[in-house]
Amino acid sequence: MTEEVRDLVVAGSGVAGLSAAVYAARADLDPLVLEGDEPGGQLTLTTDVENYLGFPEGVGGMELIQRGKEQAEQFGAEFQHGSIESADLDGRPLSLSLSTGETLRTRALIVATGASARWVGAEGEDELMGYGLSTCATCDGAFHRGDDVLVVGGGDSAMEEALFLAKFADSVTVVHRRDELRASEIMADRARDHEDVEFAWNTELVAIDGSREDGVTGATLVSHPEGHPAEKYETGEGANEADEALAVEEVDVGGVFYAIGHEPNTGFLRDTPVDLDDDGYVRTADAGEAWATTATAADGVFAAGDVMDREYQQAVTAAGMGSMAALDVEEWLESEVAAPADSTGSIATEADD
Length: 353
Known about the structure:
The protein is an alpha/beta fold. It contains eight helices and 17 strands. The strands form four sheets. Strands 1, 2, 3, 4, 5, 6 and 17 form a seven-stranded mixed sheet that branches. A five-stranded parallel sheet has the order 8-15-9-10-11. The model is unreliable at 238-242 and 341-353 (pLDDT under 50).
């Protein structure tokens, strides 16, 4: 374990983490940014970003992340590979055990580890994610003007994605593995009543066709009247003459959107004082008289971006929350009643005085 105590560690190197790093570095907090297992977060899976302020011609997701990292480094932020596997957030300083085997000690922590979109497991999704396959209609829907597209899912998110895509696409087909939706009645009715939204019931996506050069060009769907057809398709059940109910269909589509939820990357917080909701998203503390806060229930721990935002999940909102978290940390550190750090960066004790 290193004896050095950092003023601030930022967990995550997506837009929220980078924005926090820029603000914190400019405030002379010397932030250390843990890049995580997937440096850059979900934005690196997006080929073109057209709705980020300041880029009227659009910008590549990877380029936007790289620019943010360079900006943070320019102001003095330090970057390190690795992610937090467990954390002791009860004592002072905070103690972070990393995937690299190292243990970090810090006065404050910003959690910007994001949320990972759930994938279907269809053949071709690894190659085509960001090339016609997307997990965000708001981000990528405008690229599919005039296309026929699929939306995979059956909850409110899937209905919202389908209705948004209907503004651009010629047709939207919601692919759902059961014969009834999990969505709220009002959202389900809105989607059912839209003339450009159709439903493929008891159907699942098993393969996506296309290339990174041409994008998505088609998909393979399987259906069965009893629902959950992919299980029968993969195991071979129903694929013989005794059960002709399993149907396989090739469809021509120009885009596929996954809307089956996200998994917040908060496993390392589950046994800590940080308050998580039932789905694992970080709950920020009561703002009191303030209109917003990034502080969590754990003293010295703040959260920003998709790890605590289950509603918007946009690059620009994540960046805003990252800056808020850095400002909150700066104010908290200034007001913290604690022994100052000595010249070596270690926390001074009364015996040192």
